[in-house]
Amino acid sequence: MFRPNITAMQGYVPGEQPRGMEFVKLNTNENPFPCSPAVKAAIGRVCQSGLQRYPDPMATAFRERAAELFKHEVPGITPDWILCGNGSDDILTIVTRSFVAPGGLIRFPRPSYILYNTLAAIQGAESETVDFKSDWTLGSAFTAANERLQLAFLPNPNSPTGTVIAPDKVAKLAAALPCPLIVDEAYADFATTNCLGLVAENERVIVTRTLSKSYSLAGLRFGFAVAQPQIIEQLIKVKDSYNCDSLSIAGATAAIDDQAYFAKTRDAIIATRERMTGALRGLGFECIDSQANFVWCRHGKRESRDLYQQLKDAGVLVRYMNYAGWGEGLRISVGSDEQCDLLLAKLGGMV
Ligand code: PMP
């Protein structure tokens, strides 16, 4: 009944989203701050409309505002350079369905976002991972020729490490690859650089972004891709007709319009990230310098899985991750200052 690749595959297991229990929730890189008040007002106005009409299938309002927002980073950008989705996971699904045929090959780094494996499996394609070098860049194995290679994913900043490959290096990877490169910039707003500018130079670079993290809208589901218009034109054929609803389009548009709120909350998270990294090191953790809203760490003397469980029992939820053949550790999202203090106090009593 089912395609064999579906029965054979492991389903994607998102991070724990406990309901009805109060946790200090630092496991799925959500923003500790609520969304901008302007978002709530915009969604309220849509509710007043009665909701009986379908949404704008192209999310025009958002695309217009986003093109305006990125005009200095992407020369020549217009709304036609933007594709909106139900979170950036939806965009990742659209690009996979667009470029990858059954039997094809998708390449991405190890460790990175686990969903890429799932998308390949659903498509009946093979996944190939390439380990980072010791400086967290990628070598020639990432761009090696393979006639089955149809798509490459590069999370930048990477999850779970929070490391960044500089745009000039990403440009070289993209130029050397024989297939489109999806630069997954879910966390780029917390970093010092990004690859948006590359889309103007290379039609095979597609940058994806989300409002789930830096705009505090994980509950709304809104993400987007930026690429040259002839690429977006094809991707539109593959998306669901109404993949963004009226509430999310209005909310997302209001969110990117409130740049003052965005900058204030982002800056607070970056400051807390730096403080948290230093304090974790003080407690004996090895931490990788992060440019995202989370920190990847391991304790010199304690098992990561045990620390995860002890923290959970103490009401603090972090993410334990184990990448077969690479290693394991804890990915801890950057919360508010109060949440960070509580985490550090609990850990201080454990290590
Ligand atoms: N890319 C990466 C690297 C992520 O960590 C996430 C969050 N799980 C996403 C994309 C998807 O985020 P969303 O669907 O909420 O936009």
Automatic annotation (TrEMBL):
State the needed cofactors, names only.
pyridoxal 5'-phosphate
| One biological process term in Gene Ontology | L-histidine biosynthetic process
Residue list for modification N6-(pyridoxal phosphate)lysine? K213
- Per the UniProt entry, the Enzyme Commission number(s) are 2.6.1.9
Q: Which organism is it from?
A: Lacipirellula parvula
Q: Which named protein is this?
A: Histidinol-phosphate aminotransferase
Q: In which pathway does it act?
A: Amino-acid biosynthesis; L-histidine biosynthesis; L-histidine from 5-phospho-alpha-D-ribose 1-diphosphate: step 7/9
Transferase recorded as keyword? yes
What does the annotation say about its assembly with partners?
A: Homodimer.
Q: Name one GO molecular function term.
A: pyridoxal phosphate binding
Q: Which protein family is it in?
A: Belongs to the class-II pyridoxal-phosphate-dependent aminotransferase family. Histidinol-phosphate aminotransferase subfamily.
Q: What class of enzyme is it?
A: transferase
SUPFAM superfamilies for the chain: PLP-dependent transferases
Q: Catalyses which reaction?
A: L-histidinol phosphate + 2-oxoglutarate = 3-(imidazol-4-yl)-2-oxopropyl phosphate + L-glutamate
Pfam families, per database record: Aminotran_1_2
InterPro entries referenced in this protein's UniProt entry, alphabetically: Aminotrans_II_pyridoxalP_BS, Aminotransferase_I/II_large, HisP_aminotrans, HistidinolP_aminotransfase, PyrdxlP-dep_Trfase, PyrdxlP-dep_Trfase_major, PyrdxlP-dep_Trfase_small
> What does the UniProt keyword field contain?
Amino-acid biosynthesis, Aminotransferase, Histidine biosynthesis, Pyridoxal phosphate, Transferase
